[in-house]
Amino acid sequence: MAKATKDKNKDVSISRYGWIVLILSVVFVAIVVNILKVKYQEGPMWKKVGLEVVTRESREILPNRGNIYSYDDRLLATSEPLYGVYMDFLSEGIKEDTLREYVDLLSESLATKFRDKSKAQYKKIFLDNWALSRKELAALTKYNKAGKTGKRPTIRTRYVRIVRPDINYLDLKEVYKMPFFNQRSNKSGLFTEEKTTRMKPFGRIAGRTVGSIYKDISKGGASGLELKFDTILKGKPGIRSRKKVKGRWIDVVQLEAEDGWDLKTTLDVDVQDQAEQALYDKLVETKAESGTAIVMETATGEIKALVNLDRLSEGAYAEGNPNAFSYMSEPGSTFKTISLMVALEDGVVTPEDSLYVGNGLFTYNRREVRDHDWRKGIDKGYLTITRGMETSSNVLISKMILKGYENNRTGYAQRIHDLGITQKIEWDVPLSGKEGTAQIRFPDDKANPWSKTTLPWMSFGYETQVPPIYMLMFYNGIANNGKMIKPFIAKSLLNNGSVEEEFETEVINPSLCSEKTLKQVQDILRKVVTNGTGKAVNSELFPISGKTGTAMIASGGGYSGYYVSFCGYFPSDEPKYTCFVGIRRPQGLPSGGLMPGAVFKRIAESIYADKLVPHQAKVVPDSVNIHLPKVKDGLYENTKIVLDKLNQTYSYPAEKKGWVAVTTDSLQIGMENRAVSAGLVPNVIGMGAKDALFALEDAGLKVSLSGAGRVTEQTIKGGTKLVKGSHITIRLK
Predict the structure, then answer these.
(1) pTM for this structure?
(2) Hey, which of 110, 294, 431, 591 would disulfide with 436, CB 3.0 to 4.6 Å?
(3) Angle at 620 between CA 616 and CA 624, to 5 degrees
(4) 391-432, pLDDT tens digit by residue?
(5) How many CB atoms lie within 10 A of CB 448?
(6) Structural domain of residue 19, as residue ranges?
(7) How many whole angstroms separate alpha carbon 365 and alpha carbon 635?
């Protein structure tokens, strides 16, 4: 009986064990089936969900845009990273008690550093947005619990801008050290948005030529060199994503960005500044509509200065249109040199030949050709070709061309084309339409046929369109022993400091004419300056050659205003530079010599003094007089370093810090503290450009500068109430 009971219990145990094994086996099979289902059937879905949880959308990594340099490696345009400072008030790590504990210190730190808001205003931003974020969080939680039905609550405190302007990296480092913000980002809610802005260290100098980029830097260049070389300067973007690792979001780079190459130009900042200031002053004086000035190195074709100024308001001019290329108007008397070269080369005349000019009036096919002095009624009789060019006689030039080409008009037009004046050239700046092309028609042009008077009028610069850059190129060919070369601005492309591509001088016409003709033209251009309409350009320091130009501007089927110009080269006996100056619609009696000629002379003499006068190798000390260096006002620390390096003795300011005014007499150099008060416009008179820019921009002003040396004038007086974002212009001499 006992044995039967024992066997029965054993059978029950085995039966129960079997059921347990069976159940576990079923569970195991179910688990395996679900694993396979999750992995293979639902895998893509869960993978997507996982990525959404731990990975944020991939973003583009903007490469660093390449710099633009002058010929001597001075920065004309560079990129500077700026940072927008934001706070996520819904960040999970923010503790209310910690925020309230540090909000006063944080607000005071921000107000002291950035000054765009008071301590109270900053504090209000933090506390108001914290309170609002709690309401928004509660509304969002309720929305999620309700199964995301109805309208999703508006969230405004996720990305709140704390500091209004974008700030640089040095300022950002200070923000990270401020109370409360010196915690990990998930506890402070602080985050930044990096942007890149384009800076021009020399302000408006060569502004139109260097160009600009769009506000959204990812769109690239908008004008000038920035646009022309955009694909090279912008580089190639990379890709990054945000992944959550151990509760923190980190950037993961999937594709590295390739930084843009640098562009080195032929521009000379000093020459550019001299040319801009000379043209600017003359435009203000003559109340002109606009102007352009181009300086080119004769032997190489390198453009050293390219100025384009348009009137903004009375007495105010700024870089605007590409006037050197876009003045698609009749050039006037500077074109006479082209007619002269063609006639001399074809043997139509010699410089000594004479033609009858009379009182300066000549009627051809019922249309009058007039000299500029025809109203005087003086009978000048016969003039030699040379004298006719000196006095810029329209009558003489038209009769000269009629003599040679009245029965061969196509031959005249062809000779001009053969010079290379009309060759289509790819310039280093972006242009539109006909800009940057010379328009010389043939007699059989069906779209724009010649009239019965086109030939004589074309001979002295009408019935044609030759922009300044082509006229400069032609005159440079005369200065360059007959070899006409293309003016250019882009010198080389650099990658990490190494030259990847270098642009060489491009020859347009290796020989404009015979050596004999060239010498005759050169002699006549020199006499224009010494004996003719270009007398105002003549310099006592060195010889200048060139030609004046005065042309009426075609407008609405008639003529309105004048375009005056001067094109030439210097020194005449060994040309180093060729220069063109054009002024459009000046007020007063138009004169190619007195208006653009005066600008040409000022530019030429400045370049001559800086570049062409040999400097004395050794200066013998003056045993009688002591000459102390002239020192600009600036920061005490920098001034002290310079004076110590020069082994100069000086008196110290009361406080050995901050801004100082420097005085120099015959015996010593002295420094006095110079107050720069918060809320007031700094007084920068006497400072150098670098210190003045720093002081004004640090105060929140937008600065334009002109000239070189020390500040002599500022358009907003120092000590007046500061309005951040205002524009101020400083002039240096």
Answers:
(1) 0.72
(2) 431
(3) 135
(4) 999 999 999 999 999 999 999 999 999 999 999 999 999 999
(5) 10
(6) 2-41
(7) 73
